[in-house]
Amino acid sequence: METKKSAIEISSLFQLFKLPEKSLPQVFTYVGDDSYEFEIAVEFFKTKLERQGQSLDIIVIVAEGGEQAKLFAELFTPDMFFPRKLIILKNANAFFKPILEAKANSDYSDYVSGFKKNIVSLSENINLLIHYEGRDLPASFASLFQNQYSFYKPKTLYQNDIAKALKEVLEQENVKLDEDAWDEFIHKSPANIGSYIKGIRKLKQYLNKSKFTLSDINEILFTQTEMNANTLVESLIQTKKTEFYKEFTKFSDDNGEILSFLSRLLNKLDEIRKIRIIRAKHNGEIPIPIMDEILKTGSYSEARKGFMRRQLTNDAKFFTDKSLNQFYEILIEMNIKYKSGLRNEEARVYFIQRTMEMFKLLHSVASSS
């Protein structure tokens, strides 16, 4: 009996980068909200395929009416003018929704059966890159593609993952950071691989060197007009409302910025919760060895540890157990809203409403203490 083939999971972008040209996935699906990481994968495929010396036809497809038929034609119709074809499909969750939810007698039933039949014999001269926004691929996606695809789903970087992840990025990009530059980069950059690669490549592009100082980091990365999630979080926790909404004016209608803020705030709340526990068990003190164990700060410099301990001690004063739980509840609701497709002006208004609630919670704790 033949074993059923399963889709292949790629554990990281670095695993993808190490694949030789002949081992590139024909169908590669990026499962996540970070459009920059997907663009990194797209550039990688372009570079690899162009090195083969054949004419490369690059086709971009988005979720618009009628584009489903175009995808079918581009995938399964031979092209006599371009030996190689790279198809880039964006907003795939919206694109595939009517197909994956198609009933047996619907308008898409023939499309689905034809797709399943042809995908198993896809020409080796075609590569399809898919950006599927969301946490997971539905089972119907695997059925449509007959498990003939590879996928990469970025993992959340927790405190003890950050140093390893940044080290991998630096090795991949052949770059070094001074110790204080390393600390600042980690402290101010959103905790995900795409953000790290984007930042390091920007440094290389602007400064044309391979070793960077603290002044390099601040000059190139953190004086820009892009909204900074870390600045938002710190000004919120420290109840600096004017600074917070001044930073929010840089919001560019990219939900990735909001999700980065939510992720950063979640990490901060977790740190504050752990600091409160440590202080409760050690008579108000925060022993560095205990902090290293609980907050995974062992790879930090002593100066960075001292700064972090002082800052978290001060931040913890703005919270009680009740207000922490209320913050977590707001974060969960916001995360669901933005991942469900909240966009544009509605997204801005909702963000302001919920963050105003957060400020009220912080002020109520401060006024009662």
Write the layout of secondary structure elements.
Layout: E1 8-9, H1 13-17, E2 27-31, H2 35-50, E3 56-61, H3 67-76, E4 84-89, H4 92-100, H5 109-119, E5 126-132, H6 139-144, E6 150-152, H7 159-173, E7 176-177, H8 179-188, H9 193-207, E8 211-212, H10 214-221, H11 229-237, H12 241-248, H13 255-281, H14 288-295, H15 302-316, H16 321-339, H17 344-368
Parallel strand pairs: 1-6, 2-5, 2-6, 3-4, 4-5, 7-8
Helix pairs in contact: 2-9, 3-5, 7-9, 8-10, 9-10, 11-12, 11-13, 13-14, 13-15, 13-16, 16-17
Write structural notes for this entry.
The chain is an alpha/beta fold. 59% of the residues lie in helices and 9% in strands. It has 17 helices and eight strands. A six-stranded parallel beta sheet has the order 1-6-2-5-4-3, sandwiched between helices. Strand 3, helix 3 and strand 4 form a beta-alpha-beta unit. Helix 7 packs parallel to helix 9 and helix 11 packs antiparallel against helix 12. The longest helix has 27 residues. The mean pLDDT is 86.
Entry summary:
This protein is an alpha/beta fold and 369 residues long.
Shape: globular
User: Which structural category fits the helices and strands?
Assistant: alpha/beta
Rg result: 24 Å
Instruction: List unreliable stretches of 5+ residues.
Output: none
Distance between the termini: 70 Å
Characteristic terms for this protein:
369 residues; alpha/beta; six-stranded parallel sheet; two-stranded parallel ribbon; 9% strand; globular
